[in-house]
Specification:
Blueprint lengths: L1 H11 L1 E13 L11 H12 L4 E5 L5 E4 L2 H4 L7 E8 L2 E9 L2
Parallel strand pairs: 3-5
Antiparallel strand pairs: 1-2, 1-4, 2-3, 4-5
C-alpha cells in the first residue's frame, strides 16, 4: 500500500508539457534573452559558450524552464523552437526539440 501511495504521488508531480513554443536562452539572462532579436541570440550564445546552461523561455508567458538536455538545446539558438516533453517542477524533461517554420 505504501508503494502505491508513493507511486501516485510521484506520478502526480509530473505534468505533460505537450508542445510548447518559445526560445532557447541562457540561465544567466533567462527571459530577457527569450526573443528573436539578434542581440538576444548573440548574448545567449555568448553566455552558453561561457558556461551558462541553456534554458527554455515560453513564448506564451515568458516562463523560464530548465531543460533535461541543456547541451542539445544549446544547438537550437538561432530561431524559435517547439519543445516537447514533461514538466517536473521548473524543468522540462525534453523528448523532442525542433525549429519552428
Amino acid at each position: 500500500m505504501g508503494k502505491l501511495i508513493l507511486s501516485t504521488f510521484v506520478l502526480g508531480t509530473s505534468l505533460f508539457a505537450g508542445d510548447m513554443t518559445g526560445w532557447i536562452s541562457d540561465a544567466t539572462c533567462g527571459a530577457s534573452n527569450g526573443n528573436g532579436s539578434k542581440s538576444s541570440r548573440d548574448c545567449a550564445a555568448s553566455c552558453i559558450k561561457g558556461g551558462s546552461s541553456a534554458v527554455f523561455v515560453s513564448e506564451k508567458d515568458q516562463k523560464v524552464y530548465k531543460l533535461s538536455d541543456s547541451a542539445k538545446a544549446a544547438k537550437f539558438l538561432d530561431k524559435k523552437v517547439k519543445v516537447s516533453g514533461n514538466i517536473k517542477g521548473d524543468t522540462i524533461e525534453m523528448t523532442n526539440i525542433v525549429y519552428m517554420d
